[in-house]
């Protein structure tokens, strides 16, 4: 039994080692978030790439484990929470929005995890949910991947908009047009001007536009998942009561 196959030291499974590296990259990203924006974005992106690699290596090397599954999920939640906290610090006016997104993310996934454990499922990824949206989300890896990546990309774009050096890369538009917003909207939300350019479409703004549908779908899915998981927990309690009476 070699290092690259299933062995007794779960802590040293390759996907778990990737998970540890992911945690380290995320912590580094947050540590330099207010001094080195390029390094922050690069380190967080590396952390997110590791999120894709750990699952692939776990399946490829037959090194799946409960420790790895929990490490993956908890790191997902903490990394997203950390990024949203950075966004809240960069844009204090968005702190309530960031807090609500954190609450929805943590509530929906922990409710789903506990509901899955209560019914004896081996994973929180509910492909048999009553909701077609949740079934589609967990049943189609490409769709789930797009939604998850979209959230992280959108948060990174909002963070990047604070740094002119990250917004300087522009995609030319036909006719030399630029991306502008109405004056009234600019007066109401001056921070939106950071996403505009007279010489074209800022690359970060393009990423944000492409990520917006996936971000919205992910938030809807989180809410539906929270509701269905809560229903499962209530049903689980109601099912236990008759059994307790019989005893």
UniProtKB/TrEMBL annotation:
<keyword id="KW-0479">Metal-binding</keyword>
<dbReference type="InterPro" id="IPR043130">
    <property type="entry name" value="CDP-OH_PTrfase_TM_dom"/>
</dbReference>
<feature type="transmembrane region" description="Helical">
    <location>
        <begin position="199"/>
        <end position="217"/>
    </location>
</feature>
<keyword id="KW-0460">Magnesium</keyword>
<keyword id="KW-1133">Transmembrane helix</keyword>
<keyword id="KW-0808">Transferase</keyword>
<dbReference type="InterPro" id="IPR014387">
    <property type="entry name" value="CDP_diag_ino_3_P_euk"/>
</dbReference>
<keyword id="KW-0594">Phospholipid biosynthesis</keyword>
<feature type="transmembrane region" description="Helical">
    <location>
        <begin position="142"/>
        <end position="161"/>
    </location>
</feature>
<dbReference type="InterPro" id="IPR048254">
    <property type="entry name" value="CDP_ALCOHOL_P_TRANSF_CS"/>
</dbReference>
<keyword id="KW-0472">Membrane</keyword>
<feature type="transmembrane region" description="Helical">
    <location>
        <begin position="20"/>
        <end position="46"/>
    </location>
</feature>
<dbReference type="Pfam" id="PF01066">
    <property type="entry name" value="CDP-OH_P_transf"/>
</dbReference>
<comment type="similarity">
    <text>Belongs to the CDP-alcohol phosphatidyltransferase class-I family.</text>
</comment>
<protein>
    <recommendedName>
        <fullName>CDP-diacylglycerol--inositol 3-phosphatidyltransferase</fullName>
        <ecNumber>2.7.8.11</ecNumber>
    </recommendedName>
</protein>
<keyword id="KW-0444">Lipid biosynthesis</keyword>
<keyword id="KW-0443">Lipid metabolism</keyword>
<dbReference type="InterPro" id="IPR000462">
    <property type="entry name" value="CDP-OH_P_trans"/>
</dbReference>
<keyword id="KW-1208">Phospholipid metabolism</keyword>
<keyword id="KW-0812">Transmembrane</keyword>
